[in-house]
Amino acid sequence: MNTRLPPSSTQGKWRDARGMVSTQLQRNDARAIVEWVLGVTARPPRETNGPDFDLWEKGEPVGALLVVSAAGGAGGAWSGSPAVVNEVIEDEAWRAENLARFGGVERGERHLFVWLGEDHGEASRAMGPDETPEAPLPPLGITTLWVARRPAARAGWLADRVWQTNPRGEWEALEAVPRSCDHGAARQASLSPLALQRR
User: Fold this and answer.
1) Is residue 38 included in any domain, yes or no?
2) What pLDDT digit, counting tens, does each position of 92-124 carry?
3) Which of 192, 112, 100, 189 minimizes the C-alpha distance to 148?
4) Residue 38 belongs to what domain range?
5) What is the pTM of this model?
6) β partners of residue 147
7) Which residue of 1, 16, 101, 141 shows the fewest CB atoms closer than 10 Å?
8) Max CA-CA distance within the chain?
Protein backbone atom coordinates (compact mmCIF):
# COMPACT_ATOMS: atom_id res chain seq x y z
CA MET A 1 0.00 0.00 0.00
CA ASN A 2 1.37 3.39 -0.97
CA THR A 3 1.20 5.73 2.00
CA ARG A 4 3.29 8.45 0.42
CA LEU A 5 1.65 11.86 0.38
CA PRO A 6 1.54 13.80 -2.88
CA PRO A 7 3.87 16.79 -3.29
CA SER A 8 2.90 19.80 -1.18
CA SER A 9 1.79 21.80 -4.25
CA THR A 10 -0.73 19.06 -5.02
CA GLN A 11 -1.86 19.01 -1.38
CA GLY A 12 -2.55 22.73 -1.65
CA LYS A 13 -4.63 22.18 -4.79
CA TRP A 14 -6.62 19.47 -3.00
CA ARG A 15 -7.21 21.82 -0.07
CA ASP A 16 -8.32 24.57 -2.46
CA ALA A 17 -10.67 22.17 -4.26
CA ARG A 18 -12.21 21.05 -0.95
CA GLY A 19 -12.67 24.69 0.01
CA MET A 20 -14.39 25.49 -3.30
CA VAL A 21 -16.69 22.48 -2.93
CA SER A 22 -17.48 23.52 0.65
CA THR A 23 -18.22 27.10 -0.45
CA GLN A 24 -20.50 25.89 -3.25
CA LEU A 25 -22.33 23.57 -0.84
CA GLN A 26 -22.86 26.46 1.57
CA ARG A 27 -24.25 28.60 -1.24
CA ASN A 28 -26.57 25.85 -2.43
CA ASP A 29 -27.75 25.03 1.09
CA ALA A 30 -28.44 28.70 1.85
CA ARG A 31 -30.28 29.00 -1.47
CA ALA A 32 -32.44 25.99 -0.55
CA ILE A 33 -33.22 27.45 2.89
CA VAL A 34 -34.20 30.88 1.51
CA GLU A 35 -36.32 29.33 -1.25
CA TRP A 36 -38.01 27.01 1.25
CA VAL A 37 -38.73 29.69 3.85
CA LEU A 38 -39.74 32.56 1.53
CA GLY A 39 -41.21 30.68 -1.43
CA VAL A 40 -38.99 32.45 -3.94
CA THR A 41 -36.74 31.04 -6.66
CA ALA A 42 -33.01 31.76 -6.47
CA ARG A 43 -31.23 31.82 -9.82
CA PRO A 44 -27.59 32.39 -10.72
CA PRO A 45 -27.04 36.12 -11.17
CA ARG A 46 -26.37 37.96 -14.39
CA GLU A 47 -23.49 39.86 -12.75
CA THR A 48 -20.48 37.71 -11.91
CA ASN A 49 -19.09 40.05 -9.23
CA GLY A 50 -22.39 40.63 -7.47
CA PRO A 51 -24.51 38.56 -5.11
CA ASP A 52 -24.58 34.77 -5.40
CA PHE A 53 -28.24 34.56 -6.49
CA ASP A 54 -31.00 36.71 -7.92
CA LEU A 55 -34.33 36.14 -6.17
CA TRP A 56 -37.45 35.74 -8.30
CA GLU A 57 -41.12 35.47 -7.42
CA LYS A 58 -43.93 34.86 -9.91
CA GLY A 59 -41.55 35.46 -12.81
CA GLU A 60 -40.39 38.84 -11.52
CA PRO A 61 -37.04 39.73 -9.92
CA VAL A 62 -37.53 40.66 -6.26
CA GLY A 63 -34.00 40.89 -4.92
CA ALA A 64 -30.63 39.28 -4.39
CA LEU A 65 -28.95 36.86 -2.00
CA LEU A 66 -25.31 36.92 -0.88
CA VAL A 67 -24.03 33.90 1.06
CA VAL A 68 -20.92 34.14 3.22
CA SER A 69 -19.19 32.01 5.79
CA ALA A 70 -18.38 34.10 8.83
CA ALA A 71 -14.73 35.11 8.84
CA GLY A 72 -12.47 33.56 11.49
CA GLY A 73 -13.56 33.80 15.06
CA ALA A 74 -12.60 32.25 18.32
CA GLY A 75 -14.40 29.62 20.30
CA GLY A 76 -14.08 31.81 23.35
CA ALA A 77 -15.42 31.33 26.83
CA TRP A 78 -19.14 30.80 27.08
CA SER A 79 -20.81 34.12 27.89
CA GLY A 80 -24.35 32.75 27.63
CA SER A 81 -25.51 35.82 25.69
CA PRO A 82 -27.05 35.47 22.23
CA ALA A 83 -25.82 39.03 21.56
CA VAL A 84 -22.48 37.48 20.59
CA VAL A 85 -24.19 36.35 17.36
CA ASN A 86 -24.73 40.00 16.43
CA GLU A 87 -21.00 40.71 16.64
CA VAL A 88 -20.31 38.07 13.99
CA ILE A 89 -23.19 39.25 11.77
CA GLU A 90 -22.21 42.92 12.05
CA ASP A 91 -18.65 42.07 11.01
CA GLU A 92 -19.97 40.44 7.83
CA ALA A 93 -22.72 43.01 7.14
CA TRP A 94 -20.27 45.92 7.29
CA ARG A 95 -17.40 44.12 5.49
CA ALA A 96 -16.48 46.28 2.48
CA GLU A 97 -16.28 43.41 -0.02
CA ASN A 98 -19.76 42.18 0.94
CA LEU A 99 -21.26 45.66 0.58
CA ALA A 100 -19.51 46.06 -2.78
CA ARG A 101 -21.09 42.85 -4.06
CA PHE A 102 -24.53 44.37 -3.41
CA GLY A 103 -23.51 47.57 -5.22
CA GLY A 104 -24.98 46.52 -8.57
CA VAL A 105 -28.38 45.60 -7.10
CA GLU A 106 -30.56 48.57 -7.96
CA ARG A 107 -33.84 47.63 -6.33
CA GLY A 108 -35.61 45.01 -4.32
CA GLU A 109 -34.58 42.99 -1.31
CA ARG A 110 -30.95 42.39 -0.45
CA HIS A 111 -30.46 39.32 1.73
CA LEU A 112 -27.17 38.59 3.50
CA PHE A 113 -26.98 34.96 4.64
CA VAL A 114 -24.17 34.16 7.10
CA TRP A 115 -23.12 30.61 7.96
CA LEU A 116 -21.47 30.23 11.35
CA GLY A 117 -18.39 28.05 11.12
CA GLU A 118 -16.78 25.74 13.61
CA ASP A 119 -14.48 28.56 14.69
CA HIS A 120 -17.50 30.49 15.99
CA GLY A 121 -18.29 28.09 18.81
CA GLU A 122 -19.61 30.71 21.22
CA ALA A 123 -21.92 32.27 18.64
CA SER A 124 -23.14 28.83 17.53
CA ARG A 125 -23.89 27.81 21.11
CA ALA A 126 -25.67 31.13 21.72
CA MET A 127 -28.19 30.51 18.93
CA GLY A 128 -30.92 29.14 21.14
CA PRO A 129 -34.48 28.69 19.92
CA ASP A 130 -36.02 30.65 22.78
CA GLU A 131 -33.97 33.80 23.09
CA THR A 132 -32.87 36.13 20.33
CA PRO A 133 -31.07 39.43 20.89
CA GLU A 134 -32.14 42.72 19.43
CA ALA A 135 -31.06 42.49 15.79
CA PRO A 136 -28.15 44.59 14.57
CA LEU A 137 -28.87 47.56 12.35
CA PRO A 138 -27.69 46.52 8.88
CA PRO A 139 -25.94 48.98 6.63
CA LEU A 140 -27.95 50.79 3.99
CA GLY A 141 -28.29 48.40 1.09
CA ILE A 142 -28.98 45.21 3.10
CA THR A 143 -32.65 44.63 3.82
CA THR A 144 -32.63 41.20 5.47
CA LEU A 145 -30.08 39.37 7.60
CA TRP A 146 -29.91 35.60 8.01
CA VAL A 147 -27.67 33.53 10.24
CA ALA A 148 -27.57 29.75 10.36
CA ARG A 149 -25.56 27.04 12.02
CA ARG A 150 -24.92 23.52 10.90
CA PRO A 151 -26.20 20.68 13.04
CA ALA A 152 -23.54 18.89 15.04
CA ALA A 153 -24.55 15.33 14.24
CA ARG A 154 -27.89 15.43 12.47
CA ALA A 155 -27.40 14.42 8.87
CA GLY A 156 -31.06 15.07 8.06
CA TRP A 157 -30.81 18.85 8.55
CA LEU A 158 -29.34 21.66 6.45
CA ALA A 159 -29.41 23.89 9.52
CA ASP A 160 -30.60 23.19 13.03
CA ARG A 161 -30.84 26.90 13.86
CA VAL A 162 -31.80 29.72 11.51
CA TRP A 163 -32.47 33.33 12.47
CA GLN A 164 -33.87 35.87 10.02
CA THR A 165 -34.67 39.53 10.49
CA ASN A 166 -38.33 40.38 10.00
CA PRO A 167 -39.76 43.53 8.34
CA ARG A 168 -39.47 45.39 11.68
CA GLY A 169 -35.75 44.56 11.85
CA GLU A 170 -36.09 42.03 14.69
CA TRP A 171 -34.55 38.57 14.79
CA GLU A 172 -37.00 35.70 14.33
CA ALA A 173 -35.89 32.19 15.25
CA LEU A 174 -37.11 29.76 12.58
CA GLU A 175 -37.55 26.02 12.81
CA ALA A 176 -34.73 23.65 11.91
CA VAL A 177 -34.54 23.19 8.14
CA PRO A 178 -34.55 19.59 6.87
CA ARG A 179 -32.17 18.45 4.16
CA SER A 180 -35.23 17.38 2.17
CA CYS A 181 -36.27 21.04 1.72
CA ASP A 182 -34.19 21.19 -1.45
CA HIS A 183 -35.84 18.06 -2.84
CA GLY A 184 -39.43 19.20 -3.15
CA ALA A 185 -40.59 18.86 0.47
CA ALA A 186 -43.52 20.99 1.60
CA ARG A 187 -42.46 24.58 2.18
CA GLN A 188 -42.51 26.07 5.65
CA ALA A 189 -43.30 29.62 4.53
CA SER A 190 -45.59 30.01 7.51
CA LEU A 191 -42.47 30.07 9.69
CA SER A 192 -41.27 33.36 8.26
CA PRO A 193 -42.79 36.83 8.75
CA LEU A 194 -41.30 37.84 5.40
CA ALA A 195 -43.12 34.96 3.70
CA LEU A 196 -46.39 35.99 5.33
CA GLN A 197 -45.86 39.56 4.16
CA ARG A 198 -45.53 38.31 0.54
CA ARG A 199 -49.03 36.76 0.48
Assistant:
1) yes
2) 999 999 999 988 787 799 999 999 977 777 888
3) 112
4) 14-198
5) 0.79
6) 114, 163
7) 1
8) 61
